[in-house]
Every structure is written in structure tokens, then in C-alpha cells.
Amino acid sequence: MSKETSKDAKAIGDENQVEVAQAAKKEKRVMQESVYPVNELAANARKIFGTRQECVMAALKASGKSECTVNEAKAIVEKFLKREVK
Length: 86
Known about the structure:
Elements: H1 2-31, E1 36-37, H2 38-43, H3 45-49, H4 53-63, E2 67-68, H5 70-82
């Protein structure tokens, strides 16, 4: 019986290690995207967003962001540029 118990414990330990490894991979994917300050994103506005620096600065300032990822900034700028002028 003790042999079976130690095998079961080892199997459970192996399963836990697999779960930890999978969680670590997910964290790496999430953390790969870099965060940039607003002025750096604005300086590259033409290349990244296809618009002027002033538009990027205004959009990010209106959203209250001081730094964000490129994907976040793209979403904010697109939404800002599509807003209706009142």
C-alpha cells in the first residue's frame, strides 16, 4: 500500500508542476507587451497610428493616460478620432 500512496503523491506533484508551468507561460505572454510614455508614443505617431503627434497627445491626455502599451494607445486614438464633434 505504501508504494501505491507514494505513486499517487508523485502523480499529484507532477500535475501541480504542469499547472505551475502553464500559469508561468500565460504570465510571460501577458507581460511581453511594453509600456511607453505618452511623449514617446506621440513622437512616433505617423509610423504607429498614421496621424499627427497632436492627435495622439490629445487623445491620450483626454483618456488620462501618462503611459500605456501600443495596443491600448491605438484603441484610444482610434476612438478619439472617430468621436463626433459637437
